Amino acid sequence: MIYQKKEWVEASFIKDYEKIYQYSITDPEGFWESVAEELLWFKPWKKVLDWHYPYARWFVGGETNLVHNALDRWQKTPIAGKLALIWVGQDDQERKFTYRQLNEEVSKAANLLKTLGVRKGDRVTIYLPRIPEQFIAMLACAKIGAIHSVVYSGFSTEALKTRIEDAQAKIIITCDWYPYKDKKLTPIENVKKAIKDISSVKNVLVVKRNFVSQTSTFQPDSSIYLFWDEEIKKQDNICPTTIMESNETAFILYTSGTTGKPKGVVHGHGGYMVGVYATAKYIFNLNMPQSKQVFWSTADAGWITGHSYILYGPLLNGATTFIYEGTPDYPNIEIWWKLIDQYQITHFYTAPTAIRMLMRYGEGPLKKYQLSSLKILGSVGEPINPEAWFWFYRNVGREQCPIMDTWWQTETGMNMISPLPSVPLKPGSCFKPFFGVVADVVNEKGEPVKKNKKGFLVIKTPWPAMLLDLWQNPERYRKTYFENEEIIKNSKFETLNSKQIKNSNDKNSKSLDNSNLGFRISDFVYFTGDSAKIDDDGYFWIIGRNDDVIKVAGHRLGSAELESAFVSHPKVAEAAVIGLPDEVKGEKIKAFVILKHGVNPSEELKKELALQVRSQIGPIATPDIIEFVDSLPKTRSGKIMRRVLKAKELGQPLGDTSTLEN
Ligand code: WT7
Fold first, then answer.
1. Over the Cα atoms of the chain, what is R_g?
2. Ligand 1 binding residues, C-beta < 6 A
């Protein structure tokens, strides 16, 4: 069954995807340049794209700033008086900011950072829950060219510490407490513990969650702690926006990879801005001139969705972004629907895991709500199963809203494979690549696989919002995304890149040419880490990760990261962690643990280990199943073959086990 409506086409910026797509990939640089021209630049670029393996640099020499386009540009237009941000607390409190007010708050915060000695290029770690200051702090950093690193407030002390240390942050912005269901969480306590031995941290700014009374339970015991509200009061509400070269860093966002240490994904000002602006505009019809729009992405700024589609995407398009502090199931299961009606939400962008969780309560909780303000729905983070798609379509969208199943990653910065509201939708498929993006599904040799066959999902053109690098780890960057070792080693994968590298030593060899695909970049293959299929109509169907990344409720966790949390327990010798299918969370965590010699296995110990992992990473990493074992399947070189463990658990064929030692 295919879903498409005349009204959806009529209400869309783009009415003919195929035509514009073809144009966009015959001249991707021309396409992206025309998008960039819709935004403000202090100085135009000299070159649209500069591709030097393995780095793509966009709008080279161009000068701009994300905040110049997200806030400054609106100040002398009617949009200045429009709401930029609506925030609702778990306790029903409400805070609203027009574009003018938000600009003032951000300017004050930017001045505060400057008074504390923050300069262009300095790192600021933001460890805040979903409150307006989370976004004000991000914008304040970007405005002065400081680099924000947002750490999800649900991460524990250890995880926070690793991220502060890696970024060598100068300032931490946190809060005294916040409500989480019926609990009170105290991020400041985690910060205090995390920064004990980190000398880079000069100050900690503490937001008081009692916005009304501005009282706090936190008693600073050192002058490095400053209360945000008290310092903000002293600041001027005008602050010049720092001019940034397009490829200078805007932010770092840590995400899990296949080794124990999280990767600091680096995004810049210019290219990221262009990619996020264009996708927000065309995939969500944002800022269609005639319509009132309130965009609600239920993500958190601790993840890339929060950066690109709570904050920057909507503001770059002059739309209103809506933020709710709480969870979908508290105080009751109706809270999201109530908020949609109350705030006349037009765009609702969430994750399949949330939909599946809400589905369990049936249609009852939705019945008394109109939900008639909704125009477009969105899904992100993991494949959406058709059952959840239908439920979302029928009960939330009331069969009136197209669903944008957007495939992308922290690294891609922007939606990469996604429908537009005007295209024919197939439930469960994320449609086709966005304009200027060429995606493909290939086998171990790097050749496109046959229709409907599973293979590795790769991207074959640079795109403007692609990561600039991994923070202080260029080698890991190159290996992960362009010389995917796992695939090359385990599957004898010969990539276009690896040939390119070999060929570059041989002066006479012709450089590889895939110009028959209609784009000019001939040596570009970005490994996504996902596997996928393309159907007869060219629609993409994402299957899941093919590396050791697990997706629990849309959150990305590395097997190795979890394993090292297990192994740090004194009674554990070794651990292997895999993801298993889960009806609600998408995947759940199963751990195989070898105990040290002489340690007795017990249920008590299982609980202790689960707690250990939880306190090292965060509640999202709590293992679901722990099994004590005597040995683990390994390669001769000693690498744990998680693939074999997983196949065994699922009762599937073990695949190629020729490298298996035991
Ligand atoms: C991984 C990236 C991008 C924002 C949130 C996640 C999976 C993401 C989809 C989708 C199927 C999806 C992929 C991808 N993923 N969107 N629409 N359909 N899978 O960002 O934490 O960097 O995770 O999420 O496996 O590689 P992330």
1. 24
2. 255, 303-305, 380-383, 405-410, 430, 528-530, 542, 545, 551, 556
Query: From ligand 1's centre to the CA of 376, what distance in Å?
Result: 19
The pLDDT value given to residue 487: 53
Closest listed residue to residue 305, CA positions, set 203, 393, 380: 380
d(CA 200, CA 141): 17
- Residue among 77, 86, 84 at smallest CA distance from 99: 84
Tell me how far apart the alpha carbons of residues 560 and 567 are, in angstroms, rounded to a whole number.
10
What's the residue count for the chain? 662
Q: How many angstroms does the Cα of residue 529 sit away from the middle of ligand 1? A: 10
Distance separating alpha carbons of residues 218 and 388, to the nearest angstrom: 43
CA distance 291 to 347: 12
Output the CA 406–ligand 1 centroid distance in Å: 8
Entry pTM: 0.94
Rounded distance between C-alpha atoms, residue 4 and residue 8, angstroms: 7
Whether the CB-CB separation of 636 and 650 falls below 8 Å is answered with no
Q: Select from 542, 547, 555 the residue to mutate for testing ligand 1; criterion: most ligand atoms less than 8 Å from CB.
A: 542
For helices 270-283 and 28-36, what crossing angle results, to 10°? 90
Distance CA 311, CA 266 (A): 17
* Residue bearing tokens 């009529």: 10
Residue 288 — very low, low, confident or very high, per pLDDT cuts 50/70/90? low
Report the atom number in ligand 1 closest to the C-alpha of 305.
4
Which tens digits make up the pLDDT trace of 113-135? Answer: 999 999 999 999 999 999 999 99
Tens digit of pLDDT for each residue in 539-587?
Answer: 999 999 988 899 999 999 999 999 999 999 999 999 999 999 999 999 9
Phi (first) and psi of residue 498, to 5 degrees: -65, -35
Element (H, E) at 534: strand 526-534
Q: Which of 255, 312, 382 to mutate to test the pocket of ligand 1 (most atoms within 8 A of CB)?
A: 382
Provide the strand spans (E) within 208-308.
225-227, 244-245, 249-255, 263-268, 294-297
Among 458, 532, 23, 38, which residue's Cα sits nearest to residue 275? Answer: 38
Atom 21, ligand 1: which residue's CA is nearest?
Answer: 556
CA distances from 119 to 42, 95, 138, 255 (A): 20, 30, 15, 25
Q: Which helix (H) or strand (E) holds 572?
A: strand 572-582
| Cα distance between residue 204 and residue 174, in whole Å | 7
CA of 380 to the centre of ligand 1 (A): 6
Q: Among residues of the chain, what percentage have pLDDT more than 70? A: 93
